[in-house]
């Protein structure tokens, strides 16, 4: 399975499934679908629906 990255459309911050977001309590390897719905961007506070999958 290939891990993906998602970018905040508001500020450009990138969530990488491989890296997770440990400082926000999200372990490395956490799939985007498994990130809690109430999670917000650590940079600007945008909601999950403000993120878009990036093709690399």
TrEMBL record:
Sorted UniProt keywords: Electron transport, Iron, Metal-binding, Transport
Name by which UniProt lists this protein: Rubredoxin
Cofactor: Fe(3+)
Pathway terms, separated by semicolons: Hydrocarbon metabolism; alkane degradation
Organism (species): Polynucleobacter paneuropaeus
Binding site for Fe cation: 8, 11, 41, 44
Coiled-coil residue windows: none
UniProt remark on cofactor binding: Binds 1 Fe(3+) ion per subunit.
InterPro entries xrefs: Rubredoxin, Rubredoxin-like_dom, Rubredoxin_dom, Rubredoxin_ET, Rubredoxin_Fe_BS
Pfam name, any one: Rubredoxin
Domain Rubredoxin-like: 3-54
């Amino acid at each position: 399975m290939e891990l993906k990255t998602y970018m905040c459309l508001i500020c450009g911050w990138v969530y990488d499934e491989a890296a997770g977001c440990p400082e926000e309590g999200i372990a490395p390897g956490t799939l985007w679908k498994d990130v809690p719905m109430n999670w917000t961007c650590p940079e600007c506070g945008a909601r999950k629906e403000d993120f878009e999958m990036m093709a690399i």
